[in-house]
Write a sequence for this structure.
């Protein structure tokens, strides 16, 4: 199928899937103005993928097209059942009523899909960074006869990674007959477009509750959501322009360029003097150098020896410029589906009249058997006070469990958002009390527990590199770097929060600020206490020594002294977060109530909740981080900041919309808007230049979606042969991560003896057959056939690749293969030997 037709078929397939599940969304999102229409595509893919994966994992379905169609038929049956539950003509009348909103949402999806198709077609190459890994998973799923799919880089094992996103891409590719290297780029375009439509729909629902009489205006204002979430960058792009203009640089007496401003900002590369003529474009713009990479590394961490520790502060626009289809990117539309579900819960959608589990306890009970009372009565109160229909709980568990299977880090975050939304609804109806904590924990545990149960075949075979929680003592984030990272989102959020505080007493504002400061100081104290406990438990152990070495400290007292000094020097960061936490938390704790009305479950309160969760996510790695193979807070900051960006962009889009709808022109309001627009302008510099760089291509180079087109012609021919060959293990050269090695396993989908060792170590918590790397070397270099034959038998190798990579990596002794194996494929530079 031609690439253009593949893209069209892909688009139509997603559209068909969305309409297939429309009755289900209509049933499951009753509290939303557009009934979850913006979430239809991710909802459809999740449901279809779950049915296919679960039945396949249980051995009831094969990994083939008839099984995909059967899973689709089962989904259609479920949707037909939902449609029959509706009153006759009800859905049709709603569709006619919401015609304008449906058209608007579809237009957002189409424009977003087309834009990202253009970006990927301009630079489709699947090389470098994590792209080969992601393609390897897609192709392995396409070639696996059953589920779970085989690991393409460790023959004999199944994938030990959260691969649900890659499964969904592979399902569409298999159904439509699209090659994996094309499906990869179509997958990126789909995620971008589904995320845009979901963000648009979510903010429209918030604004529709906030100002129901302004529907026409709301459709335009909701467009801010995909702009802020997926297109907006951080303020580093503006710094690139300032640096290229030679701003803030002076020449000293020795002729050297110096700048106190750039030294204070301390953004890598930008601390160095400019070496080109001033211009209105970033350094190295319109070259092959990835100048835009620096935007994802604006925050600097260093150990006590001054050695840099890499830290990732990626955001969605950077992700789509980079073009990785990594789990944190693929999860975007599904995260928004979870947030939409949380908002539906907050608004009372699918609420029931009885507690979830129906367990009651007698007041003053002192016997555990009294907890088994199953019916309400005099003097009894609910043990678990969660009034949500079982069907809605099942849906929530399915979405939360799927998030873990797509991007494991999302599980606790969005289960927490869902439970917090319900607790907030209860608090607004019944007041803040300890019962709210019980409701929060009850719903959290039920949803997480059931979600794990629904996806238990995945969790059984999954291993994690997580090794506990460590205190962050010496790397507090400097305030200026936090503001560079989040300025475009913080500016509208802070203005919106301050406008809302105008209706509260000043005494409450003071209490809120002190509360935020107290919370941050408590976290600081907890991290110090954790360090003291760990020091007692790990003192004089190899692990304790390794942790101190990583810090660059000689002993615990010197570490704590340096920690206090660094925390004081970086006060701007934690004070900014304390202010943000106080402003947002105070507004949630003391909501404004309209005169003469009961507690309002307002869109503003839900947006505040999202903003507060985002602030907590950014605050957490200031004091603790998850221990993994990297040994630093790099991955924790990466994962938490990314989700904070998603939540803050939703809240910021709603904030801008509500501020616009409020009107009230004044000089002070105009000045505030000017400041916000400047901050937004700073965030738009990155996408304007970065996407322009991505779209530029050498003269004469045609647009293409084939991510393998850059490979040498001989390698492509060999891969094409492997893609149609009988399944079997292949042996090829082993090399490091982010290299061109594991090429044939990646692009063919056949399992290799070993791919990128570093990645396998991450996926399997450091436990994998490390001797495989040396075995492959021996296989190629040894002149002894018995030794080579034993290796071929040990790993059940069917094909041996001898190409340029193998000849460069090893002193290949090819004579033994020539003498004893048959040639299955050969061209000028690549030979594939078949093992009998």
């Amino acid at each position: 199928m031609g690439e253009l037709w593949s893209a069209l078929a892909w688009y139509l397939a997603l559209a068909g899937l969305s309409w297939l599940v429309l009755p289900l969304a209509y049933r499951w999102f009753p509290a939303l103005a557009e009934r979850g229409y913006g979430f239809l595509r991710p909802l459809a893919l999740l449901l279809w993928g779950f049915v296919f994966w679960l039945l396949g994992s249980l051995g009831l379905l094969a990994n083939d097209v008839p099984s995909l169609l059967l899973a689709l038929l089962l989904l259609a049956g479920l949707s037909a059942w939902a449609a029959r539950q509706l009153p006759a003509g009800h859905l049709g009348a709603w569709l006619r009523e919401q015609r304008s909103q449906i058209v608007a949402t579809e237009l957002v999806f189409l424009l977003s899909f087309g834009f990202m198709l253009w970006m990927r077609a301009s630079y489709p190459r699947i090389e470098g960074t994590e792209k080969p890994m992601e393609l390897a998973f897609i192709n392995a799923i396409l070639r696996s006869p059953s589920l779970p799919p085989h690991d393409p880089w460790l023959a004999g094992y199944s994938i030990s990674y959260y691969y649900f996103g890659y499964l969904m891409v592979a399902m569409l590719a298999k159904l439509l007959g699209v090659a994996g290297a094309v499906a990869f780029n179509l997958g990126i375009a789909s995620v971008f477009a589904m995320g845009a439509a979901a963000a648009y729909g979510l903010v429209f629902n918030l604004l529709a509750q906030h100002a129901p009489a302004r529907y026409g205006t709301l459709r335009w204002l909701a467009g801010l959501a995909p702009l802020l979430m997926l297109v907006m960058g951080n303020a580093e792009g503006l710094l690139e322009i300032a640096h290229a203009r030679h701003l803030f640089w002076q020449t000293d007496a020795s002729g050297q360029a110096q700048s106190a401003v750039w030294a204070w900002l301390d953004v890598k590369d930008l601390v160095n003097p400019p070496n080109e003529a001033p211009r209105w474009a970033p350094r190295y713009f319109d070259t092959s150098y990835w100048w835009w990479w620096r935007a994802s590394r604006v925050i600097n961490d260093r150990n006590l020896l001054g050695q840099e520790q890499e830290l990732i502060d990626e955001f969605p626009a950077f992700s789509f410029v980079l073009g990785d289809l990594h789990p944190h990117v693929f999860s975007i539309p599904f995260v928004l589906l979870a947030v939409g579900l949380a908002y539906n819960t907050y608004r009372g959608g699918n609420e029931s009249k009885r507690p979830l589990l129906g367990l009651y306890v007698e007041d003053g009970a002192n016997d555990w058997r009294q907890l088994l009372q199953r019916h309400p009565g005099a003097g009894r109160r609910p043990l678990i006070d969660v009034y949500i229909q079982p069907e809605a709980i099942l849906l929530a568990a399915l979405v939360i469990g799927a998030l873990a299977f797509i991007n494991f880090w999302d599980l606790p975050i969005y289960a927490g958002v869902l439970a917090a939304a319900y607790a907030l609804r209860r608090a607004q109806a019944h007041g803040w009390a300890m019962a709210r904590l019980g409701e929060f924990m009850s719903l959290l545990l039920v949803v997480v527990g059931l979600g794990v149960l629904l996806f238990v075949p995945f969790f059984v075979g999954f291993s994690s590199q997580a090794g506990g929680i460590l205190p962050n003592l010496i790397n507090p984030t400097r305030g200026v770097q936090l503001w560079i990272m989040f300025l475009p989102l913080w500016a509208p959020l802070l203005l919106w929060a301050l406008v809302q505080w105008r209706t509260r007493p000043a005494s409450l504002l003071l209490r809120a600020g002190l509360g935020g400061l107290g919370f941050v100081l408590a976290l600081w104290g907890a991290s110090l206490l954790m360090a003291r406990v760990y020091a007692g438990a790990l003192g004089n152990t190899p692990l304790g020594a390794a942790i101190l070495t990583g810090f660059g400290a000689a002993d615990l007292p010197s570490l704590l002294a340096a920690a206090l000094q660094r925390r004081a020097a970086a006060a701007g960061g934690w004070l900014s977060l304390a202010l943000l936490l106080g402003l947002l938390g105070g507004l949630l704790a003391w909501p404004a109530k309209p005169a003469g009305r009961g507690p309002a479950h307002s869109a503003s309160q839900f947006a505040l909740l999202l903003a507060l969760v985002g602030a907590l996510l950014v605050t957490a790695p200031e004091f603790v981080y998850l221990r993994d193979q990297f040994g630093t807070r790099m991955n924790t900051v990466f994962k938490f900041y990314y989700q904070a960006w998603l939540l803050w962009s939703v809240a910021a889009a709603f904030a801008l919309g509500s501020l616009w709808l409020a009107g009230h022109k004044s000089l002070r309001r105009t000045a505030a808007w000017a400041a916000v627009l400047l901050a937004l302008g700073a965030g738009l510099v990155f996408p304007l230049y970065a996407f322009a760089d991505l779209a530029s291509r050498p003269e004469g180079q045609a647009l293409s979606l084939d991510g393998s087109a850059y490979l040498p012609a001989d390698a492509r021919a060999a891969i094409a042969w492997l893609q149609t060959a009988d399944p079997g293990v292949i042996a090829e050269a082993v090399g490091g991560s982010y290299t061109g090695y594991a090429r044939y396993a990646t692009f063919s989908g056949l399992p290799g003896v070993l791919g990128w060792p570093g990645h396998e170590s991450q996926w399997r918590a450091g436990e994998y057959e490390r001797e495989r790397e040396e075995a492959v070397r021996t296989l190629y270099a040894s002149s002894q056939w018995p030794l080579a034959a034993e290796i071929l038998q040990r790993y059940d190798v069917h094909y041996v690749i001898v190409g340029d990579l193998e000849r460069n990596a090893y002193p290949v002794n090819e004579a033994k293969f020539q003498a004893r194996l048959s040639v299955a494929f050969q061209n000028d530079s690549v030979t594939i030997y078949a093992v009998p």
Notes: The longest helix spans residues 506-538. Confidence is low (pLDDT under 50) at residues 595-599. The chain is about 60% helix and 5% strand.
